[in-house]
Write a structure and sequence with these properties.
With 235 residues, the protein is α/β, with parallel strands linked by helices. The chain has seven helices and nine strands. The chain has a single domain (10-196, 226-234), classed as 3-Layer(aba) Sandwich (Rossmann fold), CATH 3.40.50.150. Residues 1-7 have low confidence and may be disordered.
Length: 235
């Protein structure tokens, strides 16, 4: 989704981001809420300028707008960009390797479930570009799957027999690898594995399940499908 105009994953993500299929992103809302809370704590009383990489269903952008923040979005899908613009949110079509916004413009850039889609060279270019677009001492905040077994999500097209990862992932991360890739570009790097769960509105049994998943994820247990939450500060 975030790589280049020729990527074979582009039609898949354009489908998922269409109005008829947007509910597939409902599970990402607790993750968005955690990221917004993190930005709020770091920003304090000021209204930060934030760029989100990847629109999804636009939930993060709408919540940030409701908080009074200066929110922009970048996504390769022109239709998703158009829908967000129609709702009064600044959005641009483009790719993370060449972000079409001014340098030193954002207090925060969010790259949640993005870096795992990129090849090694694309990820290096993307991190360099993100660094340029952040203000001095600005923050990159994001998530990646923790120790994903890429083989488990490989599939094959029944028509052309092309084998691909169903979500377009190219790279699996643990804490050490992620820190190693962020270190040449950023400082004050924090990485931890966790899970993003909901408690509000759930039954007692549901809340217990959410709590157990959160505890297991904090220990990196694969059964909880843990995610790495990272924060890195621009130098």
């Amino acid at each position: 989704m975030f790589m280049s105009p020729e990527t074979s994953q582009q039609p898949i993500w354009s489908h998922f981001q269409s109005e008829g299929a947007a509910n597939v992103f409902r599970a990402s809302h607790p993750r968005h809420a955690a990221i917004l809370r993190k930005i709020g704590r770091l920003a304090g009383s000021r209204a930060p300028a934030v760029l989100n990489i990847g629109i999804g269903d636009g939930n993060l952008e709408k919540k940030a707008r409701d908080l009074g923040w200066q929110i922009c979005s970048l996504d390769p899908d022109p239709q998703a960009v158009g829908r967000l613009c129609d709702q009064g949110i600044a959005a641009q079509a483009g790719f993370v390797e060449t972000i079409p916004f001014p340098n030193s413009h954002f207090d925060f850039i969010v790259a949640s479930e993005v870096l795992e889609h990129l090849t090694d060279d694309q990820r290096k270019a993307a991190l360099e570009e993100i660094k340029r677009k952040l203000k001095p001492a600005g923050y990159l905040i994001g998530t990646v799957p923790y120790r994903e077994d890429l083989e488990l999500n490989m599939t094959v097209c029944p028509k052309c027999r092309h084998v691909f990862h169903r979500w377009g992932h190219t790279t699996a991360f643990d804490l050490a690898r992620l820190r190693e890739e962020l270190a040449p570009h950023f400082r004050e790097i924090s990485c931890r594995h966790t899970a993003f769960v909901e408690f509000k509105g759930r039954t007692l049994a549901g809340k217990c399940k959410s709590l157990m998943r959160l505890i297991l994820a904090r220990f990196g247990a694969a059964i909880a499908m843990p995610t790495i939450l990272f924060v890195a500060r621009n130098s």
